[in-house]
């Protein structure tokens, strides 16, 4: 089948290759460096730091210095142009929003949130290389499969409420990658076990491999 989708920028390509965007959200970002080390060691190389976490901008800058080349660090929960500028200034390589209309005119790839076919297509038409399907927990992979029938040119990033055991189903249904927060990170960003995090990360990476094999 001919692929009618536009070529991707390097950052978005890296996210698709990873298959997973790990979403770091906690009251404070103090543990994000340790969490990110575990994730990258497991093979997860796309990390989103949510701006609702205190110290998020410093964490983005620190992770850019800390993590190996090939890891992409972005900002999530970007809600205003000021948020976007601050995140880019801190070194964010991509921006993610839960809504549709806050990310225009940025110098890095932007992934707006959408839920309905109309919103998904509007985000794509506005130039989003990936469209965040959010919140995906109330939907199913069948919804994504049906959505991609008339919109095969749109690369979709389901996020929100996706469990580790759901990863393969979403990718098989046509997701470009999936965003994983709580089900992957658990309590690791608030003092929980990094060993347990490593096991969950391996489970997630294995699910991507299985879906794409």
Describe the structure.
The chain is α/β, with parallel strands linked by helices. It has one domain (10-212): TIM Barrel. 41% of the residues lie in helices and 14% in strands. The chain has nine helices and nine strands. The strands form three sheets. The chain has a four-stranded parallel beta sheet with strand order 3-2-1-9. Helix 2 runs parallel beside helix 9. The longest helix is centred in the C-terminal third of the chain and has 19 residues, at 194-212. The radius of gyration is 16 Å and the shape is globular.
Q: Proportion of β residues?
A: 5-15%
CATH topology type:
TIM Barrel
What's the story with the biggest beta sheet? Answer: 4 strands, parallel
- First-to-last CA distance: 18 Å
Please give the count of helices: 9
* Main sheet: strand order: 3-2-1-9
Helix content: 40-55%
- What is the overall silhouette? globular
Write down the overall mean pLDDT. 95
* Assembly level: single chain
Fill in the keyword field for this structure.
alpha/beta, 3-stranded parallel sheet, single chain, 9 strands, TIM Barrel, 4-stranded parallel sheet, 213 residues, 9 helices
Can you give me a brief rundown of this structure?
With 213 residues, the protein is of the alpha/beta class. The chain is built from 9 helices and 9 strands.
């Amino acid at each position: 089948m001919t692929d009618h989708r536009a070529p991707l920028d390097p950052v978005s390509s890296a996210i698709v290759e990873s298959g997973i965007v790990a979403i770091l959200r906690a009251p404070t970002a103090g543990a994000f460096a340790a969490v990110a080390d575990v994730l990258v060691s497991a093979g997860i190389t796309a990390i989103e730091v949510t701006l609702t976490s205190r110290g998020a901008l410093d964490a983005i800058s620190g992770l850019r210095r800390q993590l190996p080349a090939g890891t992409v660090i972005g900002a999530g929960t970007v809600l205003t142009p000021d948020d976007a500028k601050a995140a880019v200034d801190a070194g964010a390589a991509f921006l993610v929003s839960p809504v549709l209309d806050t990310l225009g005119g940025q110098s890095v790839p932007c992934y707006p949130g959408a839920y309905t076919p109309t919103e998904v297509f509007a985000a794509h038409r506005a130039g989003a290389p990936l469209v965040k399907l959010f919140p995906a927990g109330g939907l199913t992979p069948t919804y994504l499969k049906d959505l991609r029938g008339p919109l095969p040119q749109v690369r979709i990033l389901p996020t929100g409420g996706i469990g580790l055991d759901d990863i393969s189903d979403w990718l098989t249904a046509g997701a470009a990658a999936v965003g994983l927060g709580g089900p992957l990170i658990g309590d690791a960003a608030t003092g929980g076990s990094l060993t347990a995090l490593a096991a969950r990360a391996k489970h997630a990476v294995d699910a991507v491999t299985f879906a794409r094999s």
